[in-house]
Amino acid sequence: MTIATPAGMDITAEIKPAYEQILTPEALALVAQLSRAFEPRRQELLAARAERARRLDAGERPDFLPGTAHIRDGEWQIAPIPPALACRRVEITGPVERKMVINALNSGADSYMTDFEDSNTPNWDNQITGQINMMDAVRRTISLEQNGKTYRLNDKVATLVVRPRGWHLDEKHVLVDGKRVSGGIFDFALFMVHNAKELLARGAGPYFYLPKMESHLEARLWNDIFVMTQEALGLPRGTIKATVLIETILAAFEMDEILYELREHSAGLNAGRWDYIFSCIKKFKLDKDFCLADRAKVTMTAPFMRAYALLLLKTCHKRGAPAIGGMSALIPIKNDPERNEVAMGGVRSDKARDATDGYDGGWVAHPGLVELAMTEFVKVLGDQPNQIGKQRPDVNVSAAELLDFKPETPITEAGLRYNINVGVHYLGAWLAGNGCVPIHNLMEDAATAEISRSQVWQWIRSPKGVLEDGRKVDAAMVRAMIPEELDKVKAVAPNGDNPSYARAAEIFEQMSTSDNFAEFLTLPLYEEI
Ligand SMILES: CC(=O)SCCNC(=O)CCNC(=O)[C@H](O)C(C)(C)COP(=O)(O)OP(=O)(O)OC[C@H]1O[C@@H](n2cnc3c(N)ncnc32)[C@H](O)[C@@H]1OP(=O)(O)O
Ligand SMILES: O=CC(=O)O
Ligand SMILES: [Mg+2]
């Protein structure tokens, strides 16, 4: 079907009848307004990222910014947190798929981050049906009949928080004045028009998670978008609240500045550990001295990860802002109680460490983890909704500590094969429309898969990319392993005969052996869907 679009806007994808409720004149007008106002700045900021990357490739090292020392040294706090966001001990996350939205809202978690980003393939149908799911969830009319089961919302549900796409992603099906719009602006604007007032009437508000930013100027762009949107919709300034994921190494040097830019709209920071590790690899991929060990060895207790986690916590609480912990990739293991108990122990200790450090809450990947994560936070918080009052003057993190990238060993054949296997499996699932999958009993999404594919790229090129048996990782070795790992993937993936896995193997080979490092794996993949 066709719909009326604002002057200068074209939609190139199929508009199914149900999509009309989302692609309304008011919603599309806001997309067009925000795109015209802010697309040039998004492009400038992306160009600034590329320029910074060139300098890092040439050997520059990041440091805290001299020009913003007054912000780091100043005494200021973010605006008060609304009651609906005061208690976030456990936040469940997941793609915007209808059944999962209902299950997550009912999971017993305090809040729920619904995800248009890392755990979602951003094909047109997922984006628009995701928005339909949001509209129905906010109005509490969402329901589903599947496999003989009826899904509907409980009386008490988690507070909804939405993660739009990052600045790097376009929405290629919507053009304004002939140019693709930003995926993030598209997701945000549609959600705001359809749900902001409804959420406020129900005692919450429009709450967001902002992914993958690299600087406070990128946060300023979001803040300006919030201000314009609130004006356009007649909402008081400061209505929107957003938690920023600190998930790039460069943002770790600008945490105060990011909170400051968003201070009217801030709901704190989150330690997005998986993209953070990926960002470290990406930004220092050409540094001959930098090479991380097998992915499984790079944990939250690695020195650079510990420094980042503690700095985030200290920074947030100093500014009256919530500090939310990231996600352990461990998920429940079915039909193997012993291994399941080990996995649950891993989640427990992850949450216990965050709670004891002073974090106000943390993410879980699966409803089966809510209760045990809650237990760990309640052990520390008691009946307090958060521990924002807990200051950490004992924490003093230097630039050198943020850049202390260890462990470097071991790098093993098993670790290399694991990365190839996960990369091919995840890319194949993503191309088939599923952006979050269990692989080897771990949650895998775009961020975790990025670590796998960027390690393979780097191990081929780094002089330190040597297996513990002495063999240098090279392109021929990786090329030989890819078909072997593809066979294994096809044997275990539920839709293993889908041609997307063979295509994924081709793309994985191209990405890991080509001299060019793809900025994000989702960029070439997006052109295929
Ligand atoms: C790095 C980052 O960005 S982290 C944030 C992004 N990642 C995520 O959000 C992870 C989301 N998690 C998931 O997608 C899934 O849990 C997976 C893919 C990891 C595992 O999926 P599965 O193996 O299919 O889970 P499993 O079979 O155990 O699911 C059991 C039930 O729980 C539901 N479920 C599982 N995870 C979730 C979730 N995160 N939210 C809501 N419901 C969920 C399933 O829908 C299923 O429901 P049903 O019994 O009504 O059919
Ligand atoms: O988005 C979260 C992450 O760890 O990446
Ligand atoms: Mg991420």
Can you describe this structure?
The structure is a single chain. The protein has 529 residues and is α/β, with parallel strands linked by helices. The chain folds into two domains: 11-75 and 85-399, Malate synthase, domain 3 (TIM Barrel, Alpha-Beta Barrel); 413-526, Up-down Bundle (Malate Synthase G, Chain: A, Domain 4). The chain has 18 helices and 15 strands. The chain has helices at 25-57, 69-73, 98-105, 124-138, 183-201, 216-233, 249-252, 255-261, 273-283, 303-318, 337-357, 370-381, 399-402, 413-431, 446-461, 475-492, 500-513, 522-526; strands spanning 9-11, 90-95, 111-115, 143-146, 149-152, 159-163, 170-176, 179-182, 207-210, 241-246, 266-271, 323-327, 361-364, 437-439, 442-444. The strands form four sheets. Strands 6-3-2-13-12-11-10-9 form an eight-stranded parallel sheet. Strands 1-7-8 form a three-stranded antiparallel sheet. It is globular and about 65 Å long. The model has no long low-confidence stretch (mean pLDDT 97). It binds acetyl coenzyme *A, ligand LL5AMS7Z and magnesium ion. Magnesium ion binds at residues 118, 211, 245, 247, 272, 274-275, 447.
